[in-house]
Amino acid sequence: MEEMKTLVLGEPITLDDFVSVARFGRKVEFSPEYIERVERSRALVEQWVEEERVMYGVTTGFGALCTKAIDKDETAQLQENIILSHSVSVGESLSVERVRGIMLMVLQNIGQGYSGVRMCVLERYRDFLNARLTPYAPGDGSVGYLSPEAHMALVLLGRGKAYWQGELLEGAEVLKRAGMKPMELSSKEGLALVSGTTSATAMAALALYDMLNAAKSADIVGAMSLEAMKGVINAFDPRVMAVRPHPDQLNASENVRRVLKGSGIMEKYKGSRVQDALSLRCIPQLHGAARKTLEDAKKTIEIEMNSCCDNPIIWPEKGNEDVISACNADSAYVGMEMDSACIAAVGLAKMSERRNNRIVDGSLSGYPYFCIKNPGLNSGLMIPQYVQAGLLNEMRMLATPSTIDNTPTCGNQEDYVAMGYNACKKAGPMAEKLEYMLAIELLGVFEVQQFVDPDVSRAPATAAVLAEIGKTVPVMEKDMLLHPCIEYLKDFIHSGELIRVAERVTGALS
Question: Dihedral sign, CA of 424, 426, 432, 435?
Fold first, then answer.
């Protein structure tokens, strides 16, 4: 794979930029403008500490302890203390790509120039990313910030743990092996490293990237199911979309028509019935609604990725310099969007399960039950539909909104809590389960082909996808081990290869 060009931070980044670093290991560097912004706000912090100006979390305690004054000689100790005392999240570590994403979001957040952190701290997180040194960060027990980020910051101090070349090591040892030394934090830095929506935004971005990919994949898989079931293409007529002009509904219908362009099956069976079941004829409407929800989330997440969500912020405008305590660290924006995105994912999944059920149910498809020649002796694709039912039940549980909860913290100083962290955290598993749901439907589409009219051509795009799958998945003549097939198809979707194969025929889909 050709090495990606270094991502220079300083200008707004996109969702694709984010994923290229967090998932695919793209290296990062800082622009001169980025460095200038950071150094300008840092100079103000140092000046104000020397002047003993009251600044939340810098010359005062944290949270409900904000009335406790901190001597200027103790401000550095205060920052180390916040890292030590806040490193209390529990459970399994967040994945490597999630931790990498959080570090990138810390660089983006502080790099806006309103946090007052020294460049050397940001350079160390940059070095962690570029060297693929990944802190260990237990992922359970956050209300939106603080604890997982603190575990990550421990490694800067030579404490905590980190992954290095596939091995989990003590912080001091991993720094030694990477040729780095522990550092001491200075005023404002511990607070800035744990504050904000950096972890929630990072997890949201990764999940949303996969959900958007899955949503486009659902158009392709749904079109292939429609063809296998000899469906009615009238439901995708542009005139129908014109009288209900939601752009994403129009795009979904156009995607299906382009995938099925040139299908001999659709042509041969045209007019054989008036309309299909809703899981087939309502693809544009449901897929469109889900896509709109996801695209709305993308706009919000990209704004958040390029924001300062610190508290307090350092306002560096010449002649109007100030330190302002507020709450940009609130995770309601990303949390509500990902709660909504999870609901959209369930919508795509529940329709996928119903389409697959129509394929494997012989009373509905007209094909042999469970797509096997000798049902009874063989179970065929009976149980993958059970798996869809089980996955869908889990997805419905995950779709329960997290942001509707409120448990006050910090001695009631934080009496309202957004709870966006869990909304974003659960979106990752939700995206993965959606990919599995579509993979099982795609397995049904592939295996039923042996019973679909053999004398009539498939659409060129459908044929290309089926041919690619056929290189790995065998035609099921009798019961066989299906798990490897499902895993392959899930990866086929997750990697974007399904879309790439279809688009080589259709051109770019919406």
Answer: negative
